[in-house]
Amino acid sequence: MSDDILSPEARQAIEKLGQADIVIGIPSYNNGRTIGHVVRAAQAGLNKYFPEFRGVIINSDGGSKDDTRRQVLEAQLDPAQLLLVETPLHPVHRLSFPYHGIPGKGSAFRMIFRMARDLGAKACAVVDSDLRSITPEWIDLLVRPVVHRGYDFVAPYYHRHKYDGTITNSIVYPLTRALYGQRIRQPIGGDFGLSGAVLETYLARKDWETDVARYGIDIWMTTIAVARGFKVCQSFLGAKLHDAKDPGADLSAMLQQVVGSVFALMIEFRDVWMRVHGSRDVELFGFRYDVGLDPIPVNLDRMVQAFVRGEADLREVWSMALSDATLRELGAIARAARSAPAAAFRISDELWVSVIYEFASAYAELPTARTHLVRSLTPLYLGRVASFVNETRDMNAAEVEERIEQLCLAFERLKPFLVERWGGPRVDEFRPRPAPAAGKPQEVSS
C-alpha cells in the first residue's frame, strides 16, 4: 500500500515512537467542544486498565476550523483522580494529524489503522469525538476482549433514546442480523475494538475510495468482520450521549452512504448470507444497568409529509425496485395520510421488510440505477420512522426493544423471498413461522 495516506509528520511520529501495544483512534472535524473530554477519558482508561502496555492516542482530523487539534494536544489528566493501583510503566502519547483522502470518517479511520499497523499494535479502539458519556471503562471494555480474550472485533452495546439511532433500528440492525445471523445490536455504533488481524484485512481492501470513506465505514467494518469469520463480541458501554439529531432532520447523505454500503457488501458476500438461517446471540461483556437518556426531538408532521411527497414524486424510480403489490400498498398509505392526522400513520413490518428486500435486490440487478435507487429511499425511511414513533410513543425502553425484536424476526421470516430473488431455492409457498420469544437464539447455519 502506498504511503500517501500518511503525512510526513505521521511517518516521523511512527519512527520516533517505534512501537505501541494499544492505539486509541479518535476521528474529528470541528469537535473542539467535546474532544478534550474524550481524550482525557481515553488516557485515563489506558493508565488505569493497561498500565503495563505502551499506549498511543491518535487524533485523525478532517481539517477542523476550530481548536480541535489544540484540545487534543493540550488535554490534561490529573493522575490523582484515578486511584491507580499500579503506576503506568509508559507515558500515553497524544498525536494529532490531518488525514488525506475523501473527506469523511472512513478516511480518518484508514489513517488510524495504518498507523496502528505500522506501530505493531496488539489492539486498536476507535471512539467518536462528540461523546459526552465516555468513561475510562469504555477503553477497558473495547480493548480487553481483544488483548486478553482473543476477540478480533468488539462492537458497542449501549442504551440509547428510542428515537436516537433510527437508521440502525429500522434498517441496519434487522437487515444485517437477518443476513449474517449474528445479533450485533449496534453495527454502526461508532465505537469499536479491533485486533491487528482484522486491521490487516481492512487495510488490504481496495474500496476505501467509495462510500465507506464517509458514513459507510462502521457497517463496512462490522460486515467484513462477521462475513470473514473473525471472532466477534459486544461490550456494554452504558449510555451513548452525543450530539444526536432529530431523525426527521436531513440525514439523507448518511442514509444513502450507509444503506449503499450494506447493499454493496450484500453483493460481495452473497455466498455467505444466502446460507444463513435465523440468528443467534453474540457474547456480551460488561455489567448492564439502566441509564438516563437525553430526549430526542421529533417532527412527526415533516416526516409524514416527506413520505407523501416522495410517493407522488418518486413513484417512477420506486417502480424500478418495488413490486406492483408493494407500490399499491404504499400508494394507499400515502392517500390516507393526506387526510388523516400524522399520529395515525402506519407502515407494517411486513411491508417495510418487502421494501428493503426489493430495493436491495434492485441495487444488485440495476448497477446504472444504484445512486437514484438509494437516494429515493429517504422518504420511505422517514415514513417508517414516523410509524415507529407513533407505535412506541407510550412505550418504555424494554417495550421499545421488544418492538424492534419483532421487526428483526419479520426480516428473518421473510428472508427466503430475498434468497429466491438472488437466485436461491424457489419459495412456492412460505408461511412465516411463529415468532420465538425475544432473545431466544434460533438455528444458524452457514
Word description of this protein:
Helix 6 (166-180) packs across helix 16 (377-392). This protein has an 8-stranded mixed sheet, with helices on both faces. Strands 6-9 form a two-stranded parallel sheet. The chain is globular and about 65 Å long. The two termini are 33 Å apart. The longest helix is centred in the middle third of the chain and has 17 residues, at 252-268. It folds into 2 domains: 3-285, Spore Coat Polysaccharide Biosynthesis Protein SpsA, Chain A; 300-421, no CATH class. The chain is built from 18 helices and 10 strands. Helix content is 48%, strand content 11%. The model is unreliable at 429-446 (pLDDT under 50). It has helices at 8-17, 35-49, 68-74, 105-118, 136-149, 166-180, 196-203, 217-227, 252-268, 270-273, 300-313, 315-321, 324-337, 349-365, 370-375, 377-392, 397-413, 415-421, and strands spanning 22-28, 55-61, 93-98, 123-126, 153-159, 182-183, 192-195, 232-239, 280-281, 284-285. It is α/β, with parallel strands linked by helices and 446 residues long.
List the helices and strands and how they pair.
Blueprint: H1 8-17, E1 22-28, H2 35-49, E2 55-61, H3 68-74, E3 93-98, H4 105-118, E4 123-126, H5 136-149, E5 153-159, H6 166-180, E6 182-183, E7 192-195, H7 196-203, H8 217-227, E8 232-239, H9 252-268, H10 270-273, E9 280-281, E10 284-285, H11 300-313, H12 315-321, H13 324-337, H14 349-365, H15 370-375, H16 377-392, H17 397-413, H18 415-421
Parallel strand pairs: 1-2, 1-4, 2-3, 5-8, 6-9, 8-10
Antiparallel strand pairs: 4-7, 5-7
Helix pairs in contact: 2-5, 4-7, 6-9, 6-16, 6-17, 8-9, 9-14, 11-13, 11-16
